[in-house]
Design goal:
The protein has helices at residues 74-77, 87-104, 164-176, 221-233, 287-304, 319-324, 338-350, 363-369, 388-397, 409-423, and strands at residues 6-10, 13-14, 20-24, 27-31, 39-47, 51-61, 127-134, 141-146, 153-155, 194-201, 208-214, 237-244, 257-262, 266-270, 273-277, 309-313, 330-335, 356-360, 374-379, 398-406, 426-433, 443-449. The chain has 454 residues and is of the alpha/beta class. The chain has three domains: 6-66, OB fold (Dihydrolipoamide Acetyltransferase, E2P), CATH 2.40.50.140; 95-119 and 286-449, Vaccinia Virus protein VP39 (Rossmann fold); 127-270, OB fold (Dihydrolipoamide Acetyltransferase, E2P) (Beta Barrel). Strand 3 (20-24) and strand 4 form a beta hairpin.
Length: 454
């Protein structure tokens, strides 16, 4: 198989990264923008020894699940890989992705239920992070997402998966920045002022927190004036912050943030608890779908334990601990990020919660020093999953169940395999939740019973 070779193939299934999978003469081909059931003419874009990549050049016979995407930028932008597939079938494909991961990586024969759908399929994304650049000749400001596989910005004027106010704020920043002498970032030269714009929108009251990520170490006059202008022109904007990131890095936000005007947080209401979310706070981008997850975990604990002692590891702002505290005897929260711990303490106080104990330290190190046994351990690690050492300690400290929340089916399956084969645990269930509609991403909650021998 060679680059630019053209073939006609039938798409059999979807890969865990959202590519259609076809086979030709025993070779696996990953096909962009294709749906299981499609018969397509493709052109090979990359040929390897064991697989090839391809692009669709003609849809000969479309899958019955193929639809017209509601966003004109779907193919160009790359953020919503599955938007051309009807939503109900998207959920089925995601269920299959989870089931395949559990079987092939986790060696687990589990029946995976249909994902709990997102309450909203449009305007669900309540946090956006747009890179900013500037054209060479006209000096026009560009803001949007990177074209897949590149650092070329797709200039997005309207994105239907985020609230309309985001489009308006970004348009304003694009149009007004030059009036204030604010330049766009040049990644190759590491020059220019504005690197990213990050907007957090409350699903509770529609207030917005705007963060300007700048290529600087401290504030400057034109930045302050520009921030004030944004604040003054939008009643929805509750505050404008500056994040100072002067390093050559792909990391969007540095640890140094300053509020230039207004407030440095928005409020979100989840399961009758009020959360404060700042520029650097990790909080789910789809609050209504997140609430479904919190409710599911809370109901499980309530129905299976009586006044449990609970450990909330990798806790962030202790979202899980706060949401389940009123069905627990005590919650012990562990989080490495100091800013998150400070904010969590404030949230706990504001919600008048008395039974949460917070530790500001690395979860693995905390596990090693803790002597208490917990009825429930909640693990909500980053996308890379847990280390073996953390899983060892979590199993040692738990005398009941581990509730493992994951946004990556592959690393979840890997960690579940370790817990079952090395620690004698039993995986009771894995329930997917659709947090990121129209993408291949899928959130999961695994319920794991711990062996009494640990």
């Amino acid at each position: 198989m060679q680059v630019n070779e053209e073939l006609t193939v039938k798409i059999e299934k979807l890969s865990n990264l959202g590519y259609g999978i076809a086979k030709h003469d025993g070779m696996v081909i990953f096909v962009e923008n294709s749906c299981p059931g499609d018969t397509v003419k493709i052109k090979i874009s990359k040929a390897n020894k064991n697989y090839s990549n391809a692009k669709v050049i003609e849809i000969i016979e479309p899958s019955p699940h193929r639809i017209e995407p509601f966003c004109a930028m779907q193919k160009v932008c790359g953020a919503c890989q599955l938007q051309f597939i009807d939503y109900d079938y998207q959920l089925e494909l995601k269920r299959q992705i989870v089931e395949d991961a559990m079987r092939t990586i986790g060696n687990l024969d589990l029946e995976i239920k249909k994902p709990v759908p997102s309450p909203e399929q449009k305007e669900y994304r309540h946090k956006i992070q747009y890179p900013i650049s500037q054209t060479k000749v006209s000096k026009r400001m560009l803001a949007g997402y990177y074209k897949p596989g590149t650092h070329e910005i797709v200039n997005i004027k309207h994105c239907p998966i985020q609230p309309k106010i985001c489009d308006n704020i970004i348009d304003f920043i694009r149009d007004k920045s030059q009036e204030f002498g604010i330049t766009g970032y040049n990644e190759k030269k590491h020059s220019g002022d504005l690197r990213h714009v990050v907007i957090r929108i409350s699903a509770t009251n529609d207030k917005c927190l705007v963060t300007l990520v700048v290529n600087a170490t401290k504030s400057f006059e034109k930045l302050k004036n520009f921030a004030q202008c944004i604040f003054d022109n939008f009643k929805e904007v509750i505050g404008v912050c500056a994040n100072y990131n002067s390093k050559r890095t792909n990391v969007i936000l540095s640890s140094k943030t300053e509020c230039l005007c207004g407030k440095d947080f928005v409020k979100e209401r989840i399961l009758e608890k009020t959360f404060k979310i700042g520029p650097n706070t990790f909080f789910q981008v789809n609050p209504k779908s997140a609430e479904n997850i919190f409710k599911y975990v809370k109901e499980h604990i309530k129905n299976n334990f009586e006044n449990p002692l609970l450990l909330d590891a990798y806790a962030g702002v202790t979202s899980f601990g706060i949401c389940v505290a009123d069905v627990c005897k005590k919650v012990v929260s562990v989080e490495e990020n100091k800013d998150s711990v400070v904010l969590a303490s404030e949230i706990i106080k504001n919600n008048d919660i008395k039974n949460i104990e917070i530790h500001n330290m690395d979860a693995a190190k905390y596990f090693q020093k803790e002597k208490r046994k917990f009825d429930v351990v909640i693990l909500d690690p980053p996308r890379k999953g847990c280390t073996k050492e953390s899983l060892d300690e979590a199993a040692r400290l738990c005398k009941g169940q581990i509730i493992y929340v994951s946004c990556n089916p592959a690393t979840l399956a890997r960690d579940l395999k370790y817990l079952t084969t090395e620690k004698g645990c039993i995986v009771n269930s894995v329930q997917p939740f659709d947090m990121f509609c129209h993408t291949y991403h899928i959130e999961n909650v695994a319920i794991i019973s711990v062996s009494s021998q640990n």
